[in-house]
Structure formats: C-alpha cells, structure tokens
Amino acid sequence: MRKQQELTDPTSCLNRAQSDEPLFVLRAKDPLASMAVRHWITMALGVHEDEKRKEAHGIAASMDEWRLKWRLGHVPDAPAEDVDEAAS
Asked: Is 11 within 8 Å of 17 (Cβ atoms)?
C-alpha cells in the first residue's frame, strides 16, 4: 500500500493498530525491504490467509519497481519460492 492510502484508509493496517501498539515500517528506499517482505510471505504460510500473502507479494514487487524507477541500486534477488507456489 502506498503511504497516502495507508494514512487515509480507515481500514488500513496502520489505522487499525492500537495507539500504543508497536509497529515496524519497511520503506522501499531500504534495499532489504522487499526481501524482508518476501521472507515474511514464506513464514506466513499456514499462519495468514493466502490473500494477505498475495497482497504482500504485490507490495514487494512494487518496492522493487520503485527502487528501479528512482535508480536506487540493485534489488536483491527474490527467494526461489514464489507466493503463487507457496499458496498451493
């Protein structure tokens, strides 16, 4: 999700969090962010629903695309297991 969407959508993860709930934000500017999201996708198998994992896969891809658009350097390789394979 983009920053503006996250802030303005009352049903977003950020807006649903409790006011004292600890959060950890990954930004596309971080060269490890998309890899961390993909790692979460792998760990989330059997814990979170497939739709949430597919959404995360799209976010990781968007992070990679954003880094390439702004020429921020190498995008780390994705793990061998893709979200579509993990969902089956």
From this structure: no
